[in-house]
Amino acid sequence: xxxxxxxxxxGPGPSDVAPSVLEAMARPxxxxxxxxxxxxxDDVARMLREIFRTANEVTFAxxxxxxxxxxxxxxxxxxxxDRAIVCxxxxxxxxxxxxxxxxxxxxxxxxAEWGSPVPDAAVREALDRGPAKIVALVHAETSTGMxxxxxxxxxxxxEHGALVVLDAVTSLAGIPVSVDEWGVDVxxxxxxxxxxxxxxxxxxxxxxxxxDAARARREPVRSWYLxxxxxxxxxxxxxxxxHTAPISMLYALHEGLRLVLDEGLEARWERHERxxxxxxxxxxxxxxxxLAEEGFRxxxxxxxxxxxxxxxxxxxxxxxxxxxxxxxxGLGVFAGRAWRIGLMGESCREDKLERLxxxxxxxxx
Amino acid sequence: xxxxxxxxxxGPGPSDVAPSVLEAMARPxxxxxxxxxxxxxDDVARMLREIFRTANEVTFAxxxxxxxxxxxxxxxxxxxxDRAIVCxxxxxxxxxxxxxxxxxxxxxxxxAEWGSPVPDAAVREALDRGPAKIVALVHAETSTGMxxxxxxxxxxxxEHGALVVLDAVTSLAGIPVSVDEWGVDVxxxxxxxxxxxxxxxxxxxxxxxxxDAARARREPVRSWYLxxxxxxxxxxxxxxxxHTAPISMLYALHEGLRLVLDEGLEARWERHERxxxxxxxxxxxxxxxxLAEEGFRxxxxxxxxxxxxxxxxxxxxxxxxxxxxxxxxGLGVFAGRAWRIGLMGESCREDKLERLxxxxxxxxx
Lengths: 365, 365
What we know:
The structure is a homodimer.
Chain A: E1 8-9, H1 19-25, H2 35-52, E2 58-62, H3 66-77, E3 83-88, H4 91-102, E4 106-111, H5 120-128, E5 134-138, E6 140-141, E7 146-147, H6 151-159, E8 163-167, H7 179-182, E9 186-188, E10 202-206, H8 208-215, H9 228-235, H10 247-263, H11 265-285, E11 289-290, E12 301-305, H12 312-323, E13 325-326, E14 328-329, E15 338-342, H13 350-364
Parallel strand pairs in A: 1-13, 3-4, 3-5, 5-8, 8-9
Antiparallel strand pairs in A: 2-10, 6-7, 9-10, 11-12, 12-15, 14-15
Helix pairs in contact in A: 1-10, 2-10, 5-6, 12-13
């Protein structure tokens, strides 16, 4: 393999990876049915339950990236004709709606302006209009840096008999996520954000209600690869072969989860909260406009319009070429005028933030 | 991460991984849109074309295991009501049929006894019965160790206007695969077999005819994650974000492909042919029955009934516990009475074969 330039990753993911996680990935591999390996899977599931704050038996890692987790959540719950209420306030809400449509669902989008959360009341109105199979929402909208309040929407959805699907790709281990307390039925994440593991797996958890719904389907799940009732026969006690698990990635996830629990969830949330706040204050001082509504800003992912007069593409190129620093460009309506800056997991460190701010100052002033 | 026992992998996959591939995987990661990383993707695509023996522009690695590649092939080509002719002579042919059904296709299974190839003539009869959108077949049936002849079936299928889907999960880089010469339209593989890269990616290639068919669909692909027209916008010149590529796995694949091309495909085929033959001769001498029909045996994957009087499960357990050697159990109709022994990629070495044979002798005599 050619030598690759060394980067500091402050984009919307992937984030920097701890050396011990990289080392875990370089261990010699073993078989996916080896008794020692399936024990490791049990460990991964146990640690994921702790981090999702759930007692759900069906908790595992999808053999694909965060978007595969999104697809797994929807494809198992939705059947043709089902009504799906989807909260849309950015690219990842749109993606939820798009996948739900491909499942054959009648999708009812509850839309908010980019940067603002979807209001509880609007979701309640949609629920009052008629029965829905699911309500799906994005906790941390990576395209805008907006934090979507979840608890009230989840409670209303359950009271109306709908299952709650929560996208926690960018939130898990960065800000509080509490699957059982909030009454979330399916919650999925990605490894390459606040968990700081390389991309390639999607942690996911299904409540008993969600599994009952998956088992009560009239039609088979449209995806064989993502059929949760088949996959749980491998991750569960049966250990029946479904597909070959991505061994090395699971080594990495195991070590990454261990680091998260070693630090402690509260300490990790506090670190993200504090440094994210520092970043946002500094950006405002440098003339950036924060794009998410005040009170609903994610500390771990900041979308900010670059100061007027700054060529965003050129400045971003200089950050990469001269400082080895990656930040993300704007997505969707923010493309060409904003940056998305991640301070996630291993990238969210005091000394790294200092270097990031110095570099941003140098390329924008 | 806990210390894991060291294994020699002679199961049906994963196979042993070369140290330089493990090292590649442990490199610090970078962003999936980083100019240096997308150059690496171009390299991967170029090397895959060489190994698939194709000029297909659309050649890349699916962000999932071999079964995700299988699903990607079918889900992009098949629409509800399409007729799919599927060759079934083992578990992986059955899986093709199952996924095709979930795509809404009318599946016409052409069945052969386990261990025997599907006869050309039977496929021709199915083609003569009426138009089919695809003919799908498994080149190396991992459940039986059978090598399916491809060329004649592919030619007949094309003459009847059907697209040819070839499962090369266990064949690619172990025995000759020649996508363009054979007229195959979609061919997919897995990383953890004869490529000797950890599981997690599925190399795949689409012909122009296959891409035309995918673009001419009446309905959107049922899977957003596996929609080839979206993914090629990332792997192609546009570099439009679709999902976050599994960076570390792609580092590993890059290095694994480099090793394959360094050795040379012909030399690699010869190595598998020679050592596989030695293994099979030795197994027969030890009282095993080879389950694939003579003349259609894969050198890289041997299914063999254990000698009478040998408790297959106990003997397999001893191989693992006492010798650190993994072989696979039987699948489907062969469960409980056969082993599946892989000599793939890095596991297919003279010295390793000697250790394997000595251990098998010790636990079965």
